[in-house]
Specification:
alpha/beta, single chain
Length: about 210
């Protein structure tokens, strides 16, 4: 049973508000988020002539190395490191995106993400999600239905997945709608809290609750 999110705080995005080709990534600027791979994937997108822009929202110890990577690849006009922003501004920021991306990796020390809340929030807003098969990625994203899954540490495959999303807006919108439906089914905080409360109050109902879920 997932913790879930408050879906009322993340209503579906209006199609008219989205910027064509705009991608959004959110997370602390640390190795396990895979932002170095994302920047490399964006260079490949650029080299294939794909029209896109990317905002990376968040801050952390890798800000300077990531900025240097962006500049070294000549992507200053495509990728913006936005720093940390409040949640209400993030909700508005999501309205401009065509897709959300978080290419999580496993570090040499074994550090990895669990179940990134930002991907749940993006799905609630009706955005298709591109992420990796690390940790909770396959639990959140139904591959080729609510978004696309890639293996970690493979910028060319990540670039291909992003290109597929950006080049087919109708498919991206369909994935976004499916993502919202999946969020309502599995990650609704109100529903999941009620199920947990019922389980705690009536332990014998565990099987019935599991079947209802």
């Amino acid at each position: 049973m997932y913790n879930g999110i408050d879906l009322t705080a993340f209503p579906p995005v209006s199609c008219g508000s989205q910027r064509p080709g705009h991608l959004l990534a959110v997370g602390r600027l640390v190795e396990k988020k895979g932002f170095a791979d994302l920047i490399e994937a964006c260079a490949l997108l650029r080299d294939r002539g794909q029209n896109f822009s990317l905002d990376i929202v968040g801050d952390g110890p890798l800000r300077q190395p990531l900025q240097a990577q962006i500049e070294g690849l000549g992507l200053e006009n495509r990728i913006l490191l936005c720093g940390a922003i409040p949640q209400e501004k993030l909700v508005a920021h999501m309205a401009q995106a065509q897709a959300a991306v978080l290419p999580c990796v496993v570090t040499d020390t074994g550090d990895r993400d669990g179940l990134p809340t930002v991907l749940l929030e993006a799905m609630a807003r009706g955005l298709p999600v591109v992420t990796t098969t690390v940790a909770g990625g396959p639990e959140i994203v139904e591959d080729d239905v609510t978004g696309l899954l890639c293996p970690p540490d493979k910028p060319p495959m990540l670039s291909g997945a992003l290109g597929d999303i950006l080049s087919d807006p109708a498919r991206a919108a369909q994935m976004g709608r499916a993502g919202r439906a999946r969020a309502e089914l599995l990650f609704n905080l109100t529903t999941n809290t009620a199920r947990l409360r019922a389980l705690l109050m009536h332990p014998g109902s565990a099987t019935r609750i599991g079947e209802a879920a």
